[in-house]
DNA sequence: TGTTATT
């Protein structure tokens, strides 16, 4: 024992004598540990949790006990952050994965250290994860990249247990993959180094490397999609009271809380309820905030609105909220008598209903789709709907968002179900001043068109 | 100038 060679420091002389209550079977004489002073650990090494350790034993005391099963990479007794008191347990990582497995099977629940009532615990630390924490989702791959390419990319970070590129039924790559590492540490290292680090050929954005969804997250995702479908097909007839963006924000917050609060074991029904509440909140956004009876001078045009006081604050949607429900003209977005909106013709189906009727369609027919630039930074899809809903049935509205920052790119698309509405919207809204900006509203460029403007 | 995908 006294001659532990190599990097393993010999246990300090006096210290508590180490032994198991069952049998003392020559612990500590096995390992010659030649090699570098700084040990290397295998990529697939396992971090072990060791419990039921007598408080009197420190790392040096414990070392010989565990060295029987192989070279130790790291051994740390857990201490209270504040008091520094020994917590009766430790983390142990062997250089070799195999050593950890041997130690676990030989020691876990098998022996009891002196002075303890319960047998020692030796098992993978919780931080090692039980599968999900070692599995990565990889996005923004090139469509032509296969398993081999992905493996090449991730192989430097550890032992890859699985590597699968997701493909459509016809075999073409969906541009994403799953990679499972031997340990959580390897997975985290890969995330650290690779996420956002490069853009693969043919990808629209930089590489995505993150933990794969858990089963629960996957189920939630599915339900979100289903709820979305339901909402698009059957817009709930909601009371359109005085509910503006602020109310919406509260509802969304509540929905988020509900979703976050669903701990393990929450049934699918409650999850759906949370999702449906979210859908309801979204529906409320569409409460028309615009003056229904505001007869605007159509001939004037937006360019005749110089010096318009900013109707929309840069820090929120305060002015967007209808403060007097149903009272045309007053306290509305356009309290200057220069609203660009045409009167809503009676007899036309509720535009709200129409707006949602086909909302899952991205684009309408040619000539129905608008490209809108110079949107206020805080404009989202909902505000875009609100702004263009008076001109006709909005089939879709989408503000582009930078995926990395979640910030609006200040442009978006609105589609109507007919070209006349689109033209009316252009006439009324192109050049319209909001805050410091003037909207640019024009027909969306067809995919194949080559004109810059 | 319609984006990013979850076995």
Automatic annotation (TrEMBL):
CDD domains: RRM1_CELF3_4_5_6, RRM2_CELF3_4_5_6, RRM3_CELF3_4_5_6. Gene3D superfamilies: 3.30.70.330. One of its GO terms (biological process) is mRNA processing. The keyword Acyltransferase does not apply. It is found in: Cytoplasm; Nucleus. Residues 46-127, 134-214, 368-446 form the RRM domain. Residues 1-34 are annotated as: Disordered. It holds the Pfam family RRM_1. Its main location: cytoplasm. One of its GO terms (cellular component) is nucleus. Residues 1-10 have a biased composition (Low complexity). One of its GO terms (molecular function) is RNA binding. The keyword Magnesium does not apply. Keywords: Cytoplasm, mRNA processing, Nucleus, Repeat, RNA-binding. InterPro entries: CELF3/4/5/6_RRM1, Nucleotide-bd_a/b_plait_sf, RBD_domain_sf, RRM_dom. SMART domains: RRM. SUPFAM superfamilies: RNA-binding domain, RBD. Belongs to the CELF/BRUNOL family. PANTHER family: RNA BINDING PROTEIN. This is CUGBP Elav-like family member 6 isoform X2. It comes from Balaenoptera musculus. The lineage of its organism: Eukaryota, Metazoa, Chordata, Craniata, Vertebrata.
């Amino acid at each position: 024992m006294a001659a532990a060679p190599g990097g393993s420091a010999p246990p300090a002389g006096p210290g508590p004598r180490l032994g198991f209550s069952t049998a003392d079977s020559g612990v500590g004489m096995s390992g010659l540990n030649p090699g570098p002073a700084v040990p290397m650990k295998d990529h697939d090494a396992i971090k072990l949790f060791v419990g039921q350790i007598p408080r009197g034993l420190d790392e040096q005391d414990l070392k010989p006990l565990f060295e029987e099963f192989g070279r130790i990479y790291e051994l740390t007794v857990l201490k209270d952050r504040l008091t520094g008191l020994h917590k009766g347990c430790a983390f142990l990582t062997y250089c070799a994965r195999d050593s950890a497995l041997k130690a676990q099977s030989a020691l876990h629940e098998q022996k009891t250290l002196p002075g303890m009532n319960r047998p020692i615990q030796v098992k993978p630390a919780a931080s090692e994860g039980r599968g999900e924490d070692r599995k990565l989702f990889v996005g923004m791959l090139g469509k032509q990249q296969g398993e081999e390419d992905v493996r090449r990319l991730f192989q430097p970070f550890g032992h890859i247990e699985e590597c699968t590129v997701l493909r459509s039924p016809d075999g073409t790559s969906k541009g994403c993959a799953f990679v499972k590492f031997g340990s959580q540490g390897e997975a985290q290292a890969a995330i650290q180094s690779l996420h956002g680090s490069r853009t693969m050929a043919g990808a629209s954005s930089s590489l995505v490397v993150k933990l794969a969804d858990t089963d629960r997250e996957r189920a939630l995702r599915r339900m979100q999609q289903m709820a979305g479908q339901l909402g698009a097909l059957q817009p709930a007839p909601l009371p359109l009271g005085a509910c503006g963006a602020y109310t919406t924000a509260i509802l969304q917050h509540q929905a988020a809380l509900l979703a976050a609060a669903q701990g393990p074991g929450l049934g699918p029904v409650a999850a759906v309820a949370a999702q449906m509440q979210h859908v309801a909140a979204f529906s409320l956004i569409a409460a028309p905030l615009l003056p229904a009876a505001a007869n605007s001078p159509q001939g004037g045009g937006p360019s005749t609105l110089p010096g318009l006081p900013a109707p929309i604050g840069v820090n929120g949607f305060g002015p967007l909220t209808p403060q007097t429900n149903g009272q045309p003209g007053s306290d509305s977005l356009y309290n200057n008598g220069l609203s660009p909106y045409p009167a809503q013709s009676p007899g036309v189906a509720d535009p709200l209903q129409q707006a949602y009727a086909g909302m899952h369609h991205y684009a309408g027919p040619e000539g129905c789709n608008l490209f809108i630039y110079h949107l206020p930074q805080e404009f989202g899809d909902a505000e875009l709907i609100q702004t263009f809903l008076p001109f006709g049935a909005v089939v879709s509205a989408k503000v582009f968002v930078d995926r990395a920052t979640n910030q609006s790119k200040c442009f978006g698309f609105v589609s109507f179900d007919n070209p006349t509405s689109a033209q009316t919207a252009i006439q009324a809204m192109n050049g319209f001043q909001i805050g410091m900006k003037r909207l640019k509203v024009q027909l969306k460029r067809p995919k194949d068109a080559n004109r810059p403007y």
